[in-house]
Amino acid sequence: MTLSGWTLAFDLDGTLVETAPDLLGSLNAVLVEQGLPSVPMSSARHLVGRGVRVMLEHGFAEAGATFDAVRDAALMDRFIDIYLGRIADESHIYPNVIEVLQTFAAQGARLVVVTNKRTDLSLALLNALDLARRFDAVVGPDLVSARKPSGAHLKEAVESVGGDPARCLMVGDSAPDVATARALGAPVIVTSYGYTDPPAADLGADAVIDDFDQLPAWVARLTA
After folding, report:
1. Over the stretch 115-157, which tens digit does the pLDDT of each residue have?
2. How far is the C-alpha of 221 from the C-alpha of 186, rounded, in Å?
3. Which of 10, 61, 178, 188 could form an SS bridge with 170, CB 3.0 to 4.6 Å?
């Protein structure tokens, strides 16, 4: 099989890497510093990938308090500082990711990360896990004209690695990933183990995978 001429785009959190423990650990560190109770993993896991503001709003609301992004902007910076200090303490690459990425690269595909996590944070995480070198580029929202779920994010990321937006496929874990792909008319596959409130099966993707080792067969089918 060859994937020459194809670009495979991957979401980061919940698709390539389990990041919830470090993100929620950072959230709880901020809450404790503010004299507020921490939140359990089960109550906030689905918020991973929706941004610092949303996570802080949730944490404050759980404690019966209110977070204002303008008034409390310093707390967003504090969250980032804490997160950078522990960015890969508990985060880990999902099983079979490296092996599958190697297979795709050997088949001639361009590989790009398309994430709503800031590019600097994404690179810090991927470098800490020795995963950045597996990709031709890492494209966060700060490098494009519009972030997911806009199709512009995927289009511009594909073009950044010399790919053709008409020959790309998205792999993600949540509704914004599916919407991004659909906006560009691209096929999309989602993981069942990621960070989504609606079940992955209800997101409208072309396929749902339970393990990365199922991905090559679906990519072969959808790019044929």
Report:
1. 999 999 999 999 999 999 999 999 999 999 999 999 999 999 9
2. 13
3. 188
Q: Report the 10 Å Cβ neighbour count for 81.
A: 12
Cβ contacts of 117 within 8 Å, gap of 6 or more: 12, 13, 49, 125, 140
Strands 110-114 and 168-172: unpaired
DSSP class of residue 6 equals: -
Contact at 8 Å (CB) between 169 and 162?
no
Gap between the Cα atoms of 129 and 20, Å rounded: 15
For 34, 119, 121, 133, the CA distances from 124, given in Å and listed in that order, are 27, 8, 5, 12
pLDDT tens column, 157-201: 999 999 999 999 999 999 999 999 999 999 999 999 999 989 999
Q: Which residue has the tokens 């989602």?
A: 190
Tokens of 202: 């209800």
- Cite the active site residues: 11
Q: Quickly count: other Cβ atoms within 10 Å of residue 201's Cβ.
A: 10
Classify residue 32 by burial, with Cβ atoms within 10 Å: 0-12, 13-18, 19+: exposed
Cβ-Cβ contacts under 8 Å for 213 (sequence gap 6 or more):
95, 96, 99, 100
SS3 content of the chain, % helix, strand, coil (to 5): 50, 15, 40
Cβ partners under 8 Å of residue 142, min gap 6: 118, 119
3-state class of 94 per DSSP?
coil
The CA R_g of the chain, rounded to the nearest whole Å, is 17
